[in-house]
């Protein structure tokens, strides 16, 4: 389990202070995948560095399975850090070492017996789908294959948690999905706590069961994926369900947003409401997604002149959907 309490990091630039992290708190339980998403400069990479003690936080606590890394010193800290597997955007492999030797490196550092190291390397390369690549060098592999090697290396010391810093941003869509499938299978296989730092909504949709939005060093929205998506006025919800911010259009009627989940997402709500109010309600935009095992539907409807928009909203809510005037929802900027 990863537990972060009130984590802050302040850098000094001359006489000026830059607060890269400002009171970040989160928990990633064993067996879950949590996504941290945000713009460049939001503090995502600083968070990774502080979680691994590559950069010492200014204040706050980082615990891995109950061990406070911020209080640990020397040998105790080194031992605790072995329980963390870290995978970067670029695999950062040693070009002069074979793939097998790259994976073996963390085991060499801790002085593991050579026979055990060879056995572990063989096991890990098989686990990430590179059983026949041990004798190759990084330059001979594709970007996706190098990332698989980086994942195998991160698993070498049997960590309790895995941290991924932009693991797919340099990969093509097909390879991205292959790496995400691998991360998900490893999470099930080893029951790890996994934290994924990303700016890609596709990553969150594909593998995460919880998510946080980081802005200016603060977590401004966080929760289980099914919960944040179920908030009609949530920024993560609107980003994940794909309807762009509303722009007033000349000549259209009043706009209403409606959000449904589970079996209700498949109901013909527009047909029901059109019949109930005696007017044709048009769908201007919509998105249907299957996220974290639940189907969600987000529609933007046009209520024609002469029809009370509140009557439409009331009918939608009576059907079990959440609905509101589009103009009453907060303006949603792109979150990543």
TrEMBL record:
Q: Pfam families under this entry?
A: ABC_tran, NIL
Please list the residue ranges annotated as the ABC transporter domain: 2-241
What is one GO biological process annotated to this record? amino acid transport
SMART domains in alphabetical order: AAA (SM00382)
Q: Which PROSITE patterns match?
A: ABC_TRANSPORTER_1, ABC_TRANSPORTER_2
Q: Which UniProt keywords apply?
A: Amino-acid transport, ATP-binding, Cell membrane, Membrane, Nucleotide-binding, Translocase, Transport
**In which organism is this protein found?**
Tessaracoccus aquimaris
Q: What is this protein called?
A: Methionine ABC transporter ATP-binding protein
* Matches recorded under Gene3D superfamilies: 3.30.70.260, P-loop containing nucleotide triphosphate hydrolases (3.40.50.300)
Q: Molecular function terms in GO for this entry?
A: ATP binding; ATP hydrolysis activity
Keyword Translocase belongs to the record: yes
């Amino acid at each position: 389990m990863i537990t972060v309490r009130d984590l802050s990091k302040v850098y000094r630039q001359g006489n000026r202070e830059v607060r890269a992290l400002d009171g970040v708190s989160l928990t990633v339980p064993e067996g879950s995948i949590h996504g941290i998403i945000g713009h460049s400069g939001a503090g995502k990479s600083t968070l990774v560095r502080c979680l691994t003690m590559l950069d010492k936080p200014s204040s706050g606590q980082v615990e891995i399975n109950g061990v406070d890394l911020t209080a640990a010193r020397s040998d105790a800290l080194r031992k605790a850090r072995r329980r963390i597997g870290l995978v970067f955007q670029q695999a950062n492999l040693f070009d002069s070492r074979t793939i097998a030797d790259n994976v073996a490196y963390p085991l060499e550092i801790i002085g593991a017996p050579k026979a055990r190291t060879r056995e572990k390397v063989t096991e890990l390369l098989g686990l990430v789908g590179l059983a026949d690549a041990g004798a190759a060098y990084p330059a001979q592999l594709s970007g996706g294959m190098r990332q698989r090697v980086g994942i195998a290396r991160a698993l070498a010391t049997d960590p309790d948690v895995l941290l991924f810093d932009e693991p797919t941003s340099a990969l093509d869509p097909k390879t991205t999905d292959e790496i995400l499938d691998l991360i998900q299978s490893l999470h099930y296989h080893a029951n790890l706590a996994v934290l994924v730092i990303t700016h890609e909504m596709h990553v969150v949709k594909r593998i995460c069961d919880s998510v946080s939005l980081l802005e200016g060093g603060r977590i401004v929205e966080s929760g289980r994926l099914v919960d944040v998506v179920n908030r009609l006025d949530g920024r993560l919800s609107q980003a994940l369900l794909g309807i762009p911010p509303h722009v007033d259009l000349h000549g259209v009627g009043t706009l209403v947003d409606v959000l449904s989940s589970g079996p209700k997402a498949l109901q013909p709500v527009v047909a029901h409401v059109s019949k109930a109010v005696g007017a044709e309600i048009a769908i201007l935009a919509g998105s249907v997604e299957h996220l974290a095992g639940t189907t969600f539907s987000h529609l933007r409807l046009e209520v024609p002149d002469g029809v009370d928009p509140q009557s439409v909203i009331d009918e939608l809510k009576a059907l079990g959907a959440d609905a509101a005037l589009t103009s009453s929802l907060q303006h949603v900027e792109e979150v990543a």
